[in-house]
């Protein structure tokens, strides 16, 4: 019995460290521990374990287990902001949104510095479809807590969902400032700029994403992941730029040597599909036929976010 | 003229009953001070949202400036963020009490009236009292009990100027200055036990003599102590100038990215 406890504790600690959301397993392992009142024997780790178990229980709708965990935590830490967040999450599972929102308002009036409650409030607003209010609250939140990168990315996605692509690029620019070496954000910026019809900016940012990712790889290497998507983006931009004149809302100049860029992009994407035997054969054919001389219909795609 | 080779023979009881007790008492009082300061420290006060916003406003421009020479964002975006921040700093939009109305120049928060700053000052004064009171008590105790005799011989020679200070209570005109009284042993311990405290209590202890470290590093003495209220109006004005500098340094990474890529793959 104690051996299984030890391994259960070990894997639970592992989940906590890596932030994995394996809720059913956490619940099964955690219930054993909870029933045998191991919480008292775990010492300081017990509270993190109770929080983890409560969240997992809410995830799989075992509300009695969650209530028990929250009760123990509230007994130990009265008036704790962290326990308040857990209570709020538990309420969100069963109560109607208006009651939950009122609960959060009261908490924020009492203590306006609790960042986690702001985030829960915004997530409830998004879930119930009140996008405008969510955007307002999120902007307010980011005005105070500027360095929350995920907050800025969430704001950009909210704007994109309403087709406000320019505002989305502005939100992403803050995310880029906070995490300048992250190529995923650069790629998202490029795709959002493309959807906002700022093609020269999109072309530059696609190339920037490739630059960041491939900085230390040789020129003979096969592009993967972010690179392929960015090279596709470059190809699309070159195609559009050669078909019609594009103005840039951000006054970005057109990239020089467009035809060379076009060739390079084609090459790089085809290299990616040429590697690895026959399973890529159909893909390769489709891609090369798409890459070939396109029809001058001028249709443009919006990137799926 | 003192004869050079005279050496006094001291009663070994002096060593047992004065030397070691003074050192022991000082060590124990130091440890006591450390724990009293720990107990007196109240947890940091929760700041209201406006206060947090004011505190973190500087971070926004610092983040912008950090990457300004190799910035990931295009010029129009950079300039709009930069000018918006500069205007906000100028108008005091981030100040916790709101921008100053009309022509009244905004004054820094008066420590007497701002309750948050008052708490910071009280905390600082409490630690000072805890440090100073035991020192005075021990000095009084030593002066009262251990006066009028010579305690130790310093291993290094000193000039005659130190005689009056180190041999207080022993009025002999020609005893070597190296023979000193117990008060000077107290001072020696006072300055020397730092190392021992660091050993016993770890590096960040409150028993160590902080005035010494302040003397050693004049830069640290000039820096703002965390308890004191910061003057955000001045800080914002300084940050505005920094923004102007950074804008001069600004350069976009995407400026010649296509040349870089083409060259790398041998097309150019």
Automatic annotation (TrEMBL), chain A:
Q: Which residues form the EMC2 TPR-like domain?
A: 103-193
Which keywords does this chain's UniProt record carry?
Endoplasmic reticulum, Membrane, Repeat, TPR repeat
Query: How is the protein disposed in the membrane?
Result: Peripheral membrane protein
Please verify whether the record's keywords include Repeat. Answer: yes
Instruction: Please give the Gene3D superfamilies that the UniProt record associates with this protein.
Output: Tetratricopeptide repeat domain
Q: Which Pfam families match?
A: TPR_EMC2 (PF22890)
Q: State the oligomer form and interacting partners.
A: Component of the ER membrane protein complex (EMC).
**Name listed for the protein in its UniProt record:** ER membrane protein complex subunit 2
Taxonomic source organism: Lentinula lateritia
Automatic annotation (TrEMBL), chain B:
| Topological type in the membrane | Multi-pass membrane protein
* SMART domains hit by this protein: DUF106
Q: Which residues cross the membrane?
A: 17-40, 130-152, 183-201
Q: Does the keyword Heme apply?
A: no
Q: Which organism is it from?
A: Lentinula lateritia
Would you tell me the protein name for this molecule? ER membrane protein complex subunit 3
Localization per Swiss-Prot or TrEMBL: Membrane
Concerning PANTHER family, the annotation shows: ER MEMBRANE PROTEIN COMPLEX SUBUNIT 3
UniProt key word Transmembrane helix: yes
Kindly give the InterPro entries that the UniProt entry links to this protein: EMC3, EMC3/TMCO1
Xref: Pfam families: EMC3_TMCO1 (PF01956)
Q: Where is the signal peptide?
A: none
Family that this chain belongs to: Belongs to the EMC3 family.
Q: What biological function has been recorded for the protein in this entry? A: The EMC seems to be required for efficient folding of proteins in the endoplasmic reticulum (ER).
């Amino acid at each position: 019995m104690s051996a299984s406890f030890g391994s259960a504790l070990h894997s639970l600690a592992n989940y906590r460290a890596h932030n994995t959301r394996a809720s059913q397993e956490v619940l099964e392992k955690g219930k054993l521990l909870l029933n045998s009142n191991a919480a008292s024997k775990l010492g300081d780790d017990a509270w993190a374990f109770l929080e983890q178990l409560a969240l997992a229980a809410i995830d799989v709708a075992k509300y009695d287990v969650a209530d028990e965990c929250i009760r123990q935590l509230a007994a130990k830490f009265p008036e704790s902001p962290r326990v308040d967040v857990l209570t709020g999450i538990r309420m969100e599972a069963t109560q109607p949104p208006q009651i939950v929102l009122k609960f959060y308002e009261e908490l924020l009036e009492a203590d306006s510095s609790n960042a986690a409650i702001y985030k829960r409030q915004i997530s409830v607003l998004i879930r119930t479809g009140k996008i405008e209010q969510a955007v307002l609250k999120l902007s307010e939140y980011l005005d105070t807590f500027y360095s929350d990168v995920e907050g800025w990315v969430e704001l950009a996605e909210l704007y994109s969902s309403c087709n406000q692509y320019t505002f989305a690029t502005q939100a992403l620019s803050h995310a880029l400032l906070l995490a300048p070496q992250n190529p995923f954000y650069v790629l998202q910026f490029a795709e959002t700029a493309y959807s906002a019809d700022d093609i020269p900016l999109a072309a530059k940012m696609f190339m920037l994403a490739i630059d960041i990712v491939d900085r230390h790889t040789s020129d003979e290497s096969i592009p993967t992941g972010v690179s392929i998507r960015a090279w596709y983006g470059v190809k699309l931009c070159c195609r559009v730029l050669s078909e019609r004149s594009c103005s840039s809302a951000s006054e970005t100049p057109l990239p020089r040597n467009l035809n060379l860029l076009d060739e390079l992009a084609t090459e790089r994407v085809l290299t990616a599909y040429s590697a690895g035997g026959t399973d890529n054969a159909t893909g390769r054919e489709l891609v090369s036929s798409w890459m070939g001389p396109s029809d001058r219909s001028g249709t443009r795609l919006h990137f799926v976010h | 003229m003192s004869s050079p080779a005279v050496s006094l023979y001291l009663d070994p009881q002096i060593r047992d009953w004065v030397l070691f007790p003074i050192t022991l008492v000082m060590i124990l009082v130091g440890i006591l001070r450390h724990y009293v300061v720990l107990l007196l420290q109240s947890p940091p006060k929760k700041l209201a949202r406006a206060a947090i916003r004011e505190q973190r406003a500087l971070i926004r421009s610092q983040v912008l400036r950090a990457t300004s020479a190799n910035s990931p964002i295009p010029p129009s975006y950079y300039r709009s963020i930069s000018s918006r921040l500069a205007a906000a700093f100028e108008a005091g939009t981030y100040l916790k009490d709101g921008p100053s109305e009309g022509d009244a120049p905004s004054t820094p928060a008066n420590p007497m009236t701002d309750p948050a700053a008052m708490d910071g000052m009280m905390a600082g004064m409490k630690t000072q009292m805890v440090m100073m009171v035991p020192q005075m008590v021990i000095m009084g105790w030593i002066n009262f009990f251990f006066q009028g005799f010579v305690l130790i011989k310093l291993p290094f020679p000193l000039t005659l100027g130190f005689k009056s200070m180190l041999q207080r209570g022993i009025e002999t005109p020609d005893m070597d200055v190296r023979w000193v009284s117990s008060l000077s042993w107290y001072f020696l311990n006072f300055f020397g036990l730092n190392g021992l405290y660091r050993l016993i209590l770890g590096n960040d202890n409150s028993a160590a003599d902080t005035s010494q470290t302040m003397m050693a590093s004049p830069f640290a003495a000039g820096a703002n102590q965390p308890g004191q209220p910061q003057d955000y109006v001045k800080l914002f004005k300084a940050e505005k100038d920094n923004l102007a500098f950074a804008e001069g340094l600004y350069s976009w990474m995407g400026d010649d990215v296509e040349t870089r890529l083409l060259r790398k793959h041998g097309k150019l």
